[in-house]
Design goal:
Number of strands: 16
Shape: globular
Number of helices: 0
Order of helices and strands: EEEEEEEEEEEEEEEE
Strand content: 35-45%
Structural class: mainly beta
Strand order of the largest sheet: 4-5-6-13-8-11
Radius of gyration: 15 Å
């Protein structure tokens, strides 16, 4: 089911500060926080451009678990521009969180049985990477933020907070 954090509008090029906590475990109710992940901050022109597995687009990879690549990873965060309807790539064994950053929205259908409708920036959906997911644009292209984590090894949670001084999105 899609969820909304009720934040202000967010443009992809002015995304709030991002924090990632790596949590180990398979049961979300019994997670143990490991050492924080330390990132080297790189400019967008240095993001890796990774073709989608289904050949229908390209993802800007922001970060991936140390020593891993697209063929096998524990976690990955990325941003993608979507300009046409279509099936999502198969990421069996991974849990996916997709956040709408820009655009008029995206409808997701998972295995022809469950649906998510993301209409406002920072609306998000969580789903199994093995699901047969089809995305339908509501009215024109969108930009989304993706978090994928290996089921049974890592999990990710999304938290948005806002006050007068800062916005913070923690993954």
């Amino acid at each position: 089911m899609s969820q909304t954090a009720n934040p202000p509008s967010v443009a992809a090029d002015s995304f709030p500060r991002l924090s990632l906590s790596v949590r180990e475990g398979s049961d979300r109710g019994a997670l143990h926080v490991r050492e924080p992940v330390v990132f080297n901050i790189i400019s967008p022109d240095r993001f890796k451009q990774i073709p989608w597995k289904n050949g229908q687009g390209v993802t800007s990879e922001l970060a991936i678990s140390e020593g891993d690549d697209i063929a096998e990873f524990t976690w990955r965060i990325s941003i993608a521009k979507v300009d046409k309807d279509g099936a999502f790539s198969d990421f069996s064994g991974l849990h996916r969180t997709l956040v709408l950053l820009e655009g008029r929205g995206l409808e997701l259908c998972h295995d022809d049985t469950s649906f998510d409708r993301l209409q406002r920036p920072l609306d998000y959906a969580e789903f199994d990477g093995a699901s047969r997911t089809v995305g339908t644009l509501i009215s024109g292209p969108i930009t989304d933020f993706n978090v994928m984590s290996r089921a049974g090894r890592m999990s990710a949670c999304l938290l948005y907070t806002s006050d007068a001084a800062d916005d913070l999105l923690c993954v």
